C-alpha cells in the first residue's frame, strides 16, 4: 500500500501570535517537524510514508470569507494573505521534506486540502492518484475545520484515511470532539 501524509495549514496565522491563532499550533508544528525529519532520515521509529505533502491557505481576495466583524463560522478575520508573513509556514516546521505544497482559497473560502492545487495547477486528488496512493494520514490545523474537511474529502475520494490527533490542534474542545465523532462515523481511523 502506498501511503501519503497530508500536513494541513501549519501557517503563522493559525499559530500563537497569528491573526487567527489556534491553541497549541506551535506545539503541533514542532511535533510534525520531528515526525518529518525522522521520516526523511529513515529512522527506525519513523512512519512509512511514500510521499509527504502540505496544504496552505493562500488568500488573495476570498470575498466574505474575510470580515471586519467575523462570525467565526462562515467569516473570519483576515488571515493567510498571499505575500504576508502570516501565510508562511510556522518556523517550527521545516518545509524541506515536503514533496509538494497545495495552495487553496485564492478567491474563495477553502477548507479542504482537496480544494488545493500545486503552483502548476495540479489538484491534490490527481497528484496522489498519479503516485498510486491508497492510504492517507492527515494532521495539522485545525482539527475542527480544515483537518476535518480534508479528512472527509480524502475518505470521499476513496483513500483509506487516518487522522493523527496528537499532531493536530483544534479551535475549541466541543467543536473538536464533534469533529472527531463525525470523522469516526465516516469510517476514518482516529489515531
UniProtKB/TrEMBL annotation:
InterPro entries: Isochorismatase-like_dom, Isochorismatase-like_sf, Isochorismatase_Nicotinamidase. It comes from the Bacteria. Transmembrane segments: none annotated. Keywords: Hydrolase, Metal-binding, Pyridine nucleotide biosynthesis. Pathway: Cofactor biosynthesis; nicotinate biosynthesis; nicotinate from nicotinamide: step 1/1. Its EC number is 3.5.1.19. Residues 4-188 form the Isochorismatase-like domain. Pfam families: Isochorismatase. Belongs to the isochorismatase family. This is nicotinamidase.
Amino acid at each position: 500500500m502506498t501511503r501519503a501524509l497530508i500536513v494541513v495549514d501549519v501557517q503563522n496565522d493559525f499559530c500563537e501570535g497569528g491573526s487567527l491563532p489556534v491553541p497549541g499550533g506551535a506545539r503541533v508544528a514542532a511535533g510534525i517537524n520531528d515526525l518529518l525529519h525522522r521520516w526523511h532520515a529513515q529512522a527506525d521509529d519513523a512512519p512509512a510514508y511514500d510521499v509527504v505533502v502540505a496544504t496552505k491557505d493562500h488568500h488573495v481576495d476570498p470575498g466574505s470569507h474575510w470580515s471586519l466583524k467575523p462570525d467565526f463560522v462562515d467569516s473570519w478575520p483576515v488571515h493567510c494573505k498571499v505575500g504576508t508573513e502570516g501565510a508562511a509556514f510556522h518556523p517550527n516546521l521545516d518545509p524541506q521534506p515536503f514533496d509538494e505544497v497545495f495552495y487553496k482559497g485564492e478567491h474563495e473560502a477553502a477548507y479542504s486540502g482537496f480544494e488545493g492545487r500545486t503552483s502548476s495547477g495540479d489538484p491534490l486528488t490527481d497528484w496522489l492518484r498519479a503516485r498510486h496512493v491508497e492510504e492517507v494520514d492527515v494532521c495539522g490545523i485545525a482539527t475542527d475545520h480544515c483537518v476535518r474537511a480534508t479528512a472527509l474529502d480524502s475518505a470521499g475520494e476513496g483513500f483509506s484515511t487516518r487522522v493523527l490527533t496528537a499532531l493536530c490542534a483544534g479551535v475549541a474542545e466541543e467543536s473538536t470532539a464533534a469533529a472527531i465523532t463525525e470523522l469516526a462515523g465516516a469510517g476514518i481511523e482516529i489515531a
